[in-house]
């Protein structure tokens, strides 16, 4: 086994619940990205005509964090996303921490678990399914908690208004999760690198 493959294998075998320097950096970068995209109007939270008030892309860094950084990174990123959702809440449902924060903590955790379970079968399929699963976790738990807390009526017509938003968020999350995870692991495994530089006396000109 080559030294490069050995290093990659050793990195992959690190306890997923251990916070390494690399994982701290990933958590910091994705947390910062979450703050940025949720701070800019119309990007992290997109107004929609249903009881939620907004569709979101703010959960995507949390999904990516779970996939490439593991469960702890996913949990930290999810908490930051939930906190930003609470701080930017314009509707009563998201002014409640049990709706704005609690469900978001599980997004990265589910994405990590799905990716870890399916990765050995097919990397890209695993990333796509993990992205979709993370997004659905956000949608199902937020709507479920909204119903439990009395903000959303358990009415089929009302719940149907969430369907287009749920589908759109799921598809977008799956696409971004696969693209970013693939790019990250290509760079991490050093499959993309600069061409070798030859000494001056070895150049043909």
UniProtKB/TrEMBL annotation:
It comes from the Bacteria. The chain crosses the membrane at residues 24-48, 60-87, 99-118, 125-152, 158-181. InterPro entries: ECF_trnsprt_substrate-spec. One of its GO terms (molecular function) is transmembrane transporter activity. Keywords: Membrane, Transmembrane, Transmembrane helix. This is Membrane protein.
